[in-house]
Amino acid sequence: MRSIAEFLGDAWRLAKPYFSRSEERRSAWLLLGAVVGMQLLLVGMSVVLNFWNNAFFNSLQDKDWNSFINLLLFWKVMPNGLVMPGFVGVATLYIAIAVYRIYLTQWLQIRWRRWMTRHFLDSWLADRAYYRISLIALADGQKSMGTENPDQRISDDLRGFIGDSVVGVRGILSLGIDLMSNVVSLFSFIAILWSLSGPLTLFGFTIQGYMVWVALVYSIAGTVATHFVGRPLAMLNFVKQRVEADFRFSLVRLRENTEGVALYGGEEEEKRGLLFRFDALAANWRELMRRYRLLTALTAGYGQIASVFPIVVAAPRYFAGLIPLGALTQTSGAFGQVQGAMSWFVDSYADIASWRATVERLSTFQRAIEAARAAAAEGVRAGAEAPDYGLRGATLGLPDGEKLLDGADLSLRAGESVVVSGRSGSGKSTLFRALAGIWPFGAGEVRRGRGRTLFLPQRPYIPLGSLRHAVCYPAAVDAASGEEAAEALRAVGLGRLVPRLDDEDNWALHLSGGEQQRLAIARALLARPDWLFLDEATASLDPAAEASLYELLRQRLPGTTIVSIAHRPAVAEFHARHIVFERGPEGPGKLVEQPAGPMAMEAAH
What we know:
Blueprint: H1 4-20, H2 25-61, H3 65-73, E1 75-77, E2 83-85, H4 87-125, H5 129-139, H6 150-162, H7 172-197, E3 200-202, E4 205-207, H8 210-230, H9 233-256, H10 258-264, H11 267-319, H12 325-342, H13 344-347, H14 349-374, E5 381-382, E6 389-397, E7 403-412, E8 417-421, H15 428-436, E9 442-447, E10 453-456, E11 465-466, H16 467-472, H17 482-491, E12 504-505, H18 513-527, E13 531-535, H19 543-556, E14 561-565, E15 577-582, E16 590-594, H20 598-604
Parallel strand pairs: 5-9, 8-14, 8-15, 10-13, 13-14
Antiparallel strand pairs: 1-2, 3-4, 6-7, 6-9, 11-12, 15-16
Helix pairs in contact: 1-14, 2-3, 2-4, 2-7, 2-12, 4-6, 5-14, 6-14, 7-12, 8-11, 8-12, 9-11, 9-14, 11-12, 17-18
């Protein structure tokens, strides 16, 4: 865990942008001002109720029925000329302000969370940081801080940072306003307590306002003890959020790969893996239980003692006849307010520890995103658009530093068809990643050809939503009409799915590997790119189906440059140019031109 100063700096950097540069900053300040103003009104009404408490209990002691009724239902003019409002009016106003303070707090929370979610999503997706962030962790040789479970950081941690008063999650808004309220209460009630305390002579010394000093000593003792007991909670909560996310992610992975697990018969291994992650979760939970047990024992005892402590301390003056019953109860109430304000750290320690862990996770995630985006300037640089597509002086490496290519040049001319082959693991897919401009390990320049480009990986990405959305991806769902999407599905052999075009489902779980690759080809038919790159994008299909789809691409996209990574010799028939990625067991490889045709492709393998 970072130091307190660094932690507060991180919290400030996370909170500041919404109020300083967001498009909602004016309304945000208005909402925050309204919430703060209402909280201050509640503190002021607590002061009024403290004086009301004095007058009310004095009316009980004096058996003054009229004063009792007036103070309860109406108002009473006090001897000093001030009007003391009745309890019913004060309570009604207090309830109304409390209700709308919570309502406006929740409104501010969801607006702030919405903006921060968009802000983090923008940063995470910009410059393909979401992709590079995991590669940076691999380059470090370990799981870097801030790179795991980005889904949890954007969903749960952002909610925990801001707070969610609907479910009782305390974040920066509730903790900050609560701290401010306690500071105002402290200064409001400390003068009242000082005036009510009177002097105390102890060992020949007279202590003025002795109840204030008693509250101070009591609060300091509780704060020091609480910090000593609860100090490990921040790190334990940090680990808790990570192991909870790991366990949940493992369950999601199993849900998304049920067929593969079933075919392998891997139930026992999956169960062992899930239980291993749950054991880590349970071990952390036991540590939290032990620490919370100690902290709860301390804070509960502290609170119980505080409920009677001020009356015990002030009782001698009451029994000596120096103060009436109302003054005793007012003194107890003022002491409770002062001691409670001074003990804010004690009462909020568990929430602060949990919030600090959330700040740490968001800050490390933000730093990881910034590092990933900074890495966008490294690797193979994107040059200006050119008539051709290719690499110039490209050096490609792996995260561990191993070189795949060194100073290679490659030119792909518009309108031609090229097949790239080579042994498995030689680096063909990494070459495609470099051509796409997403590979951060290397040097040189990639020239992007003019026009639209589409890359189809071996495992197509199928987004959640309707089948029509999946076919149109990465374009918006309305980029093609329903009939256009249906015709593309029929062309690639998925006509049976046309009636379900607008059904929303997790289609990646319902389509086989071959069907997913057919759907990806349908995307290419709809997108009509100028440059189409296929990384074994038909490898899950039988040779006849593969040949049929390549023939379809050649007919439907006659002006498109098609570049394919493939292993099957039959694919070469649909390409006029053949490049082999040759790489031995040691050292970088090279790109070698070969005669086109199935026989040449077989020789390359």
